[in-house]
Amino acid sequence: MTPQDIVLIGCPVDSGKRSRGCLMGPDAYRTAGLAEALDGLGHHVRDLGNLSPAPVAPLPDAPAHLHALAETIGWTRSLSAAAQSAMDQGLPIFLGGDHSLSLGSVAGVTAHAHAMGRPQFVLWLDAHSDFHTLHTTGSGHLHGTPLAYVTGRDGFEGFPALTASVPEQNICIIGLRSVDPAERAALQDSGIHRHDMREIDETGIARPLGTFLDRVTAAGGALHVSLDVDFIDPAAAPGVVTTVPGGATVREAHLVMEMLHDSGLMTSMDLVELNPFLDERGRTAQLMVDLAASALGRRVFDRTTRAYA
User: Fold this and answer.
1) Over the range 252-281, which residues count as b (16 or more CB within 10 Å of their CB) and which as e?
2) What are phi and psi for residue 56, nearest 5 degrees?
3) Which SS3 state, helix, strand or coil, does residue 5 take?
4) 5-302 has CATH 3.40.800.10 classification
5) For residue 91, is pLDDT > 90?
6) Are 104 and 80 in contact (CB under 8 A)?
7) What pTM value is reported for the model?
8) Annotated catalytic residue, options 228, 233, 252, 258
9) Does the pLDDT of residue 302 top 90, yes or no?
10) 194 or 307: whose pLDDT is higher?
């Protein structure tokens, strides 16, 4: 395995929904030993600390039901700039924070890929499609909007203009099991590749992932991986607000990560929606660290079995 330069960027984003706690996620990953795990694999790890949102004034004409719009726009600005810069330093891992952080992380890495003349691809591992705009989200929670924003859909007044958008056909969502009617209609009219848990049950998780990775390889693309805690079944990963039963097993999640490592395609990564306030003795944080390590070279059979006291 070739050592890589890994850049850890703390993103204590807690503005994407009303339930509090995701701001503690970056330090939970640090406490669970993410840097040590990656260093133990031979990688060169630098932790850049935690970002802060750029100051943004309230938008007076914004829909009233949108939660913390100005703060989320501020996070998008700071994260987009940090992501674009970090791509020149190595493989960035964005430590969330709720999934609204991907408004900025994906926008930033896509701008970098565009500057390098490479197509950007996104693997979205999530129970939800996050394909709402500011005008279709009924909840007003902006952690449900990143894919709509980065693909250039209308309806993001006040957000930074995209340097480059991600083509819909370059996105693959795996793990779907909770999609709002407005999102379902938009997805059906889109070019996004999407695979729900029924399909995974019927055909396995390796087939759709392998097909997508083959497309990334053929295009010479950069690959951003966004791993939401709720991709995994809540019985194994309880530390998340948006629990949806019937998610990926621990073994399926590790298989995805191992296939990513085997492909050598991943160029950036989000770890999102960990809420340590809801976790059980750190088990979700530790699982997410283990999955990140699998994506960067650790095999499951190399792991020492731990007992949770």
Assistant:
1) bbbbbbbbbbebebbbbbbbbbbbbebbee
2) -135, 130
3) strand
4) yes
5) yes
6) yes
7) 0.96
8) 228
9) no
10) 194
Active-site residue identified among 14, 126, 183, 290: 126
Using DSSP, state whether 150 is helix, strand or coil: helix
The CA-CA-CA angle for residues 247, 146, 31, to 5°, reads 60
Residue position matching structure tokens 């890589």: 4
Catalytic residue among 71, 183, 258, 273: 273
Sorted by where each begins, the domain ranges of the chain are 5-302
Q: Which is catalytic among the residues 112, 114, 141, 143?
A: 143
Amino acid at 27: D
pLDDT at 300: 58
Active site residue 128: yes
- How far lies 158's CA from each of 6, 31, 169, in Å? 32, 36, 26
Token pair 């629990």 is at which residue? 243
Which residues are CB-neighbours of 30 under 8 A, at least 6 positions away?
Answer: 8, 10, 47, 95
Q: Is 88 a catalytic residue?
A: no
Antiparallel, parallel or unpaired: β 193-196 and 91-96: unpaired
Q: What is the mean pLDDT of residues 196-200?
A: 97
